[in-house]
Design goal:
- The chain is of the alpha+beta class and 328 residues long.
- 30% of the residues lie in helices and 22% in strands.
- The chain has seven helices and twelve strands.
- The strands form four sheets. The protein has a four-stranded antiparallel sheet. The chain has a four-stranded antiparallel sheet with strand order 9-10-11-12.
C-alpha cells in the first residue's frame, strides 16, 4: 500500500499538492547531463524526499561500548544501524554518532588518542530557520507571516544579521525589556498562540468576534493609558557637559531606532544633533579610505539592517563596499 501521512502541525497549510517526480525510476543520476548544477540539486532533493517517504523506517539501536586498555577505561555511546530503510538514499540526515559493528571481547587496535577540552557554551543565536522552528513549536504565526515577522524586526533595527545569525541591537534589548516589564501578558507566548486559535475559531464561525475583541481590547486600553504615563518617565534624557555650537544650551543623550545620539536640549527651537562618540568608536574600522585616502572606512547599515562599509567623508567621498577592505 502507498504510505499516507497525517499532519502533525495545526499550522500546516495543505492547500497545495506535493511536488514529486513524474516517475520513481527517473533517478537523478540518469538525467544529470540534461540539468545545470542548481536544477540537479533541486531535482535530487525532490527525488530523495519523495522516494524516502515511501520506504520502510530505519532500525537503529542505541549502544554503549566500554573499552578496557590496561588500567584505563574508555566509553562511547552512539547508534548501530540494524536496517538502513529510508537512510539508504538519505544518509546525510542521520547526524548522530554511528558506531562500527563490534563483538564482545574483540581486540581493538589503538590508532590515535586525542585530548579535547570542552567548555559549556551558551545556546546558539537564532537564524532564519531556527526562529521559524521555534515560532511553529509555540503556535505563533502562520507560514505566510514568518517572513514579515523577521523583516519587521530588521526594519525597526531590533536585530541585525551577523554571520547568518540574528543579534539584538541596543534599541531591541531596550524595547524587549520595556515590553516584558510593562506588558508581560501581551508578550507571553501563550497569549499569542491563544489569540491565533481564537481568530481561527472566528473564521470557522465557532466564536463571536465582537465578544472576543471586547474581552481583549478594554483591559488592554486601560493598561495602555496607565503605562503611557509611567513609560514616559523612564526615557529620561541624560545631560552632558557639552554645549550646543548653535545656541549654547547643554547637549543631551537621546535614543533613536538607530541607537544613541547627542541633541540640543533646546529642541524644538534648535535642531542641532550629532553622533555620540561611543557610536563612532563602535563603527570605526581604523582603515583609511582606499578611494580618497583622507577619510576612514566606517561600518554602516542599510534600511533593512544589512551591514556595509563606506567612507566617513560621505557625501564628499562616495566609496562603499559590501566586503570589509583590508589595510595593506
Amino acid at each position: 500500500k502507498i504510505k499516507q501521512y497525517k499532519t502533525k502541525s495545526k499550522l500546516a497549510q495543505e492547500a497545495h499538492e506535493a511536488i514529486r517526480p513524474t516517475s520513481c525510476f527517473q533517478e537523478p543520476q540518469k538525467i544529470k547531463s540534461y540539468l545545470n548544477k542548481d536544477q540537479y540539486k533541486l531535482y535530487n532533493l525532490i527525488w530523495q524526499r519523495a522516494i524516502s517517504s515511501q520506504m520502510k523506517p530505519a532500525v537503529l539501536e542505541t549502544t554503549s561500548i566500554n573499552i578496557k586498555a590496561k588500567k584505563y577505561k574508555f566509553k562511547t555511546t552512539g547508534i548501530l544501524i540494524k536496517f538502513d530503510g529510508w537512510l539508504k538514499i538519505y544518509p546525510e540526515k542521520q547526524k548522530e554518532n554511528i558506531l562500527p559493528q563490534l563483538k564482545v571481547k574483540q581486540k581493538l587496535k589503538l590508532i590515535e588518542v586525542e585530548a579535547n577540552q570542552h567548555f559549556t557554551e551558551p545556546p546558539a543565536r537564532y537564524n532564519d530557520s531556527s526562529l521559524v522552528k521555534i515560532l511553529e513549536s509555540l503556535g505563533i504565526g502562520r507560514p505566510s507571516t514568518y517572513a514579515p515577522i523577521i523583516s519587521t524586526l530588521q526594519q525597526r533595527n531590533y536585530i541585525q544579521k551577523e554571520k547568518k545569525s540574528f543579534k539584538p541591537t541596543e534599541i531591541g534589548i531596550l524595547v524587549n525589556d520595556l515590553m516584558n516589564k510593562h506588558f508581560p501578558k501581551i508578550v507571553d507566548y501563550n497569549f499569542t498562540a491563544k489569540m491565533e486559535n481564537e481568530l481561527d475559531e472566528i473564521a470557522q464561525g465557532k466564536q463571536n468576534w465582537q465578544e472576543m475583541i471586547k474581552n481583549f481590547y478594554f483591559p488592554f486600553k486601560k493598561n495602555l493609558e496607565k503605562k503611557e504615563k509611567e513609560i514616559a518617565k523612564t526615557f529620561v534624557e541624560k545631560k552632558t557637559n557639552e554645549k550646543c555650537p548653535l545656541c549654547g544650551k547643554p547637549l543631551v543623550i537621546k535614543m533613536s531606532r538607530y541607537g544613541k545620539f547627542l541633541a540640543c536640549s533646546g529642541f524644538p527651537k534648535c535642531h542641532f544633533t550629532k553622533p555620540l562618540s561611543e557610536n563612532k568608536l563602535k563603527n570605526s574600522t581604523g582603515i583609511k579610505c582606499p578611494k580618497c585616502k583622507k577619510g576612514e572606512v566606517v561600518i554602516r547599515k542599510t534600511k533593512k539592517g544589512r551591514i556595509f562599509y563606506g567612507c566617513s567623508r560621505y557625501p564628499e567621498c562616495d566609496f562603499v563596499s559590501w566586503e570589509k577592505p583590508e589595510e595593506k
